[in-house]
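Translate structure to sequence.
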């Protein structure tokens, strides 16, 4: 596996990601990894390497630009706010990462997916809302804020992996997302893990007051669900 820091651009904004590609003589599917509200970090880069073990190339993307990392809950909230408020900005920043991935040597440009965590989970959902045609998108304990932007015809399959005790997500938000996807005739799945809080895939999450708590079983189960989903959507490309 070869891992390296890469730069790509959304207009004049330089985004700094990490690309990791397993050694292979064949062109490979690629999975983009969208970061939490902290920004791209070791957590996302490790997820990219775990995707390499499944036989996929992976790109940890930088939504904020400049490789910025938040240092507090307040700073993280400030970082995500421009993208929560302006979904066209959000969508374009994500599409620029996908277009970069398509241009990479050794990549099958028809087999691209995105996974994301927390804010990155919302990124996966927002990319689906944009109407962009990917093989599939996966949200792990994603934020589910509704978009005021009209959603386009959904062309990407969607898997949402959610903790039932996540205090950041209301039942109304869940129903709104499900209704939205159904109205758009999307191919969507929503899995809710019982007794599971926000950030359940992050072993460093242990703040019960904030509602971010690691859950080993839900972490393992959700990764298996993602693995099966990616295999299915990549196998069905061009069928």
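Result:
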């Amino acid at each position: 596996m070869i891992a390296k820091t890469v730069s790509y651009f959304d207009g004049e904004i330089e985004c700094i990601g990490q690309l990791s590609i397993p050694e292979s003589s064949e062109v490979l599917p690629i999975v983009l990894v969208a970061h939490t509200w902290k920004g791209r970090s070791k957590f996302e880069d490790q997820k990219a390497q775990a995707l390499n073990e499944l036989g996929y190339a992976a790109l940890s993307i930088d939504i904020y630009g400049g490789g910025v990392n938040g240092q507090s809950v307040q700073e993280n909230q400030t970082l995500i706010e421009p993208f929560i408020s302006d979904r066209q900005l959000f969508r374009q920043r994500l599409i620029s990462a996908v277009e970069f991935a398509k241009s990479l040597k050794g990549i099958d440009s028809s087999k691209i997916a995105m996974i994301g965590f927390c804010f990155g989970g919302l990124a996966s959902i927002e990319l689906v809302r944009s109407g962009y045609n990917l093989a599939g998108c996966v949200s792990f304990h994603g934020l589910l804020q509704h978009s005021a932007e009209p959603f386009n015809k959904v062309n990407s399959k969607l898997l949402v992996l959610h903790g039932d005790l996540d205090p950041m997500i209301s039942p109304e938000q869940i129903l709104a997302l499900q209704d939205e996807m159904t109205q758009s005739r999307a191919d969507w799945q929503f899995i809710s893990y019982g007794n599971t809080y926000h950030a359940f895939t992050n072993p460093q999450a242990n703040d019960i007051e904030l509602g971010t708590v690691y859950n080993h079983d839900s972490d393992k189960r959700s990764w298996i669900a993602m693995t099966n989903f990616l295999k299915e959507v990549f196998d069905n490309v061009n069928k």
